[in-house]
């Protein structure tokens, strides 16, 4: 896979890799993993919230009155 970054993004990625003593590839890989994990967690929270809202709809409606 080829990832095209702006010069500014690549420079920032390289600086971050140097600060962490890791390769640019390692830092980019970690960033992708973190992004995926964060999105999956967000989706799970949304799914659980929707399920709770459905389960407690009548109680929530009563509270709103």
Can you tell me about this structure?
It is a single chain. With 65 residues, this protein is mainly α. It has one domain. It contains three helices and no strands. It starts with 6 loop residues before the first helix and ends with a helix.
For the structure shown, list the relevant keywords.
65 residues, mainly alpha, 3 helices, Ribbon_hlx_hlx, Ribbon-helix-helix protein, CopG family
Gist?
The protein has 65 residues and is mainly alpha-helical.
Approximate shape: rod-shaped
The tally of strands reads 0
Q: Which percent range fits the helix content?
A: over 70%
Mean pLDDT reading: 94
User: What can be said about the biggest beta sheet?
Assistant: none
Tell me the distance between the termini.
56 Å
The oligomeric state is single chain
Low-confidence stretches: none
- Gyration radius, in Å: 21 Å
Q: Which structural class do the helices and strands define?
A: mainly alpha
Give the tally of structural domains.
1
Order of helices and strands: HHH
List the total number of helices.
Answer: 3
β-strand percent reads: under 5%
Organism: Sphaerisporangium rufum
InterPro entries: Ribbon_hlx_hlx
Protein name: Ribbon-helix-helix protein, CopG family
List strands and helices in order, with pairings:
Blueprint lengths: L6 H14 L3 H32 L1 H8 L1
InterPro entries: Ribbon_hlx_hlx
GO biological process, one term: regulation of DNA-templated transcription
Organism: Sphaerisporangium rufum
